[in-house]
Amino acid sequence: MPQRPGAANESCIVRIRGLHYAAGARVIFDGVDLDVERGAVTAIMGPSGTGKTTLLRLITGQIGPDAGELLVDGQDVAGLNRSGLYALRRRMGMLFQNGALLSDFDVFENVAFPLREHTRLPDSLIRNIVLTKLQAVGLRGAADLMPYELSGGMARRVALARAIVMDPEILIYDEPFVGLDPISLGVVLRLIRELNDALGISSIVVSHDVREIAAVADSAYLLSGGRVLASGKPASLTESDLAEVRQFMRGLPDGPVPFHYPAPDYAEQLLGSAPP
Amino acid sequence: MSNLLAELYERMLESLLAVGRYALFTGRLLVETPRSLLRFGLVVHQVHNAGALSLVIIMLSGLFVGMVLGLQGFDLLERFGSEDSLGTAAALGLVKELGPVVTALLFAGRAGTALASELGLMRATDQLSAMEMMAVDPVRRVVMPRFLGGIIAMPLLAAVFSMIGIFGAQLVGVQMMGVDPGQFWSQMRGAVEVDDVMEGVIKSCVFGVACSAIAVYEGFHSLPTAEGVGRATTRTVVISSVVVLLLDYMLTAVML
Question: Which domain CATH number covers A51?
Answer without folding.
Answer: 3.40.50.300
